Amino acid sequence: MPNYFDIVCRVCISRHFIDTLFIDTGLSSLLHFYLR
């Protein structure tokens, strides 16, 4: 069985990285809208 907890952690970390990377440009909200 795949480790779902590890997968979720990786997704959370990647999203947090994207947020911190684009927060100054305001693209964070657009990315969240696109990822939903």
UniProtKB/TrEMBL annotation:
This is Uncharacterized protein. It comes from the Eukaryota.
